[in-house]
Design goal:
The chain contains ten helices and ten strands. It has helices spanning 43-50, 96-101, 119-126, 133-146, 148-152, 163-175, 193-210, 221-227, 245-250, 252-258; strands at residues 3-14, 17-28, 32-36, 58-63, 66-70, 104-107, 181-185, 213-217, 230-235, 238-244. Strands 6-7-8-3-9-10 form a six-stranded mixed β-sheet, with helices on both faces. It has a four-stranded antiparallel β-sheet with strand order 2-1-4-5, covered by helices on one side. α3 packs parallel to α6. It starts with a strand and ends with a helix.
Amino acid sequence: MSELLTIDSISVSYGNIKALRNVSVHVDQGDIVCLIGANGAGKSTLLKAIVGLEPITTGTISYQGNIIAQASASGVKKRFALPGRRSASDSNTLRTDEIAGRGVALVPEGRRVFADMTVEENLDMGAFLIRDDDKISRKKEEMYDFFPILGARRKQKTRSLSGGEQQMMAIARALMSSPRLLLLDEPGLGLAPLIIQDIFEKIAIINREEGVTVFLVEQNARMALKASKQGYVMENGVVVLSDLSANLLENEKVKAAYLGE
């Protein structure tokens, strides 16, 4: 199986605070890979770095064998740049919209839906890179078929949806761009157990039937490890364990720290 995403020794700093330190992760094409860890471990920061929302100070991030983010020669990448312009040292670093255009979609923590827009309008926002109106219409109908509750409520304001329905809509919005790699940041956050189970069943279908590779960040370690093939454990910005998810479920340290055993 070929590597779709390769994160090689990256670091991210907020001032004097190192949020990530020499983190290396790989995600193979077609897999579901999870990253578990406590609050504040740096999990969300890693996902933001992948899509260009956080600058990296060391290392590289490659997607489909091509570098999409690289620390500058000075060790500090500029957080903002004029569209379409980069310095020579940042020539391999792509903007967030360019990364999205290559097939990477992020479902952020807390869903980040447009509350005053309808469900349909939110899905339209997920198709901002698509210029074919017919294709956008087809994709929306696909999402309504996959998430029937969204089809029934397509004209409702998003703020009227339940937390679980909003999470489904956030995933559907990300899928509007037909990504090859789906990044999910805490999809089960704040949801009831039965809703979380439903969300994870949908994630499995997306991976199995649509061939979408999934990189999943989740505090519900047991659910994440059961849903994935490969797992990573992060503590204080450092990857401290990596193994097959089935092995991590049986790891005594993981059991004690994250599974309540």
